[in-house]
Amino acid sequence: MLDDTDKRLLAALQTNCHLTTQELSELLNLSASQAGRRRQRLEADGYIRNYAAKLDPARLGLSVQAFVQVQLGTHGPEQSQSFARLVNLRPEITSAWTLTGDADYLLRVYCEDLTALNSLIHEVLLRHEAVSRVQSQIVMDQFKQDAPLPT
Prior knowledge:
The chain is of the alpha+beta class. It has 5 helices and 4 strands.
């Protein structure tokens, strides 16, 4: 169970994962050793999975962000595993979800340009033997950045 202090610690780390133990202790009104132990426990218990840098896609030359819905024509374990392997091999696919409804998968992709997105869709995704339909939505603007999880 998480108490209010754990939740505040998690919220603070989501905002700035570089906070030192001393800075956390000041934010939480705890001793540095107590704050450090709490952080270690939350890491060990799997609440904190990892620490990562958020990169700017535009600065990396990735000017197109899109969401791609994929529908499979055949649904079996082999087809699903094969499609998952394909998705995991493609660095431009940054997130993937299985869904209910018409689409089986939702992919979040970042590409250099529309030509690269077109190539991904037509030369990679649609060529997979189990894929029957692909529909894409190009992001015009992301007015809310990926936010921290509610704690």
